[in-house]
Amino acid sequence: MAIPDNHPRAESLRIRERIIEGMHEKVVAEAGLIAHGRGEAYDYLLGEKTPNYAQKQQEVAVAMLLTSKKPVISVNGNIAALCPKEIVQFAETTRAALEINLFYRSEERIKAITSVLKEAGAKTILGADPEYHETLEEISHLRRIVDIRGIYSADVVLVPLEDGDRTMALRRAGKKVITVDLNPLSRTSLWSNISIVNNVTRAIPEMIEESFKLKEKNSDELKDLINDFDNYKSLQESLNFMSSRLRDLAEGKLEDPTKNL
Ligand code: PTJ
């Protein structure tokens, strides 16, 4: 559907269209639409802008990816639909492998996501070839199927827009987990080493920029950034941001659009 440029919610509606189209093309799971709606609601609480606390989370996440031995970025349907080019570029700048890993796994969806990533410029995509499949015993559903060259042997895994079980399982398997999740109360956010409470559509491009800056720093400086970071405190900051923004609105900052009618 063509979204008029002057629509006050044009950008948000265009993003919705990408998710809906992705669902018709089997890239996005049906439940991906529901997940997206939940994300949108949280993004309202942020004012649909990247807050300062998220810039810090993003900086530390990039530092962790750049200092890791074997970083992997896990791609699901929503990521493939929302930011395919950006995720491919981010994998390149952080020398991370890209691996398709799905909650609602099917061969049809793996193929659809593979072609989206290829079109976006990805040269190597892990997770599709059964010859390299291994299982992470800690996970009970289909996300347990991982690539031996990727998530299975990774030290750091970025799992944007994720369900909680796998994050817990990856932590139990001794991996460092970074997530991008607009819900600071999700199990994924609580269980990750670094949780970025921001919209992936802003976070990934901003982290690409950040990775160019951080590449200028030496590894001790990057490690200091990581060591000084406390995920639990950082989640508290994000909750504080959301609640104080709501309080400000409730106490008078909310504009009444009907006042001059
Ligand atoms: O493609 P599949 O089969 O792997 O399935 C992917 C989904 C997203 C359906 C699956 O992982 C799932 O059900 O996830 P959940 O448990 O709904 O969690 C998704 C989380 O991502 C929720 O906490 C949302 O608030 C959050 N979220 C949704 N959209 C965004 C987001 N976070 C950041 N940016 C978004 N655009």
CATH homology superfamily: Phosphopantoate/pantothenate synthetase
Shape: globular
Count of distinct strands: 7
Binned, the helix content reads 40-55%
Question: How much of the sequence is in beta strands?
Answer: 5-15%
Provide the list of bound ligands, each named once. ligand PTJ
Succession of helices and strands: HHHEHHEHEEEHEHEHHH
Describe the overall structure.
With 261 residues, the protein is an alpha/beta fold. It has one domain (52-237): Phosphopantoate/pantothenate synthetase (Rossmann fold, 3-Layer(aba) Sandwich), CATH 3.40.50. 53% of the residues lie in helices and 10% in strands. The chain has helices at 10-24, 30-46, 52-67, 77-82, 84-93, 107-119, 164-172, 187-191, 200-214, 219-227, 231-253, and strands at 71-75, 97-100, 133-135, 145-147, 156-158, 176-180, 194-196. The chain has a five-stranded parallel beta sheet, sandwiched between helices. The longest helix has 23 residues, at 231-253. The chain starts with 9 loop residues before the first helix and ends in an 8-residue tail after the last helix. Ligand PTJ is lined by residues 29, 31-32, 35-36, 38-39, 42, 76-78, 82, 102-104, 161-163, 180-183, 186, 199-201.
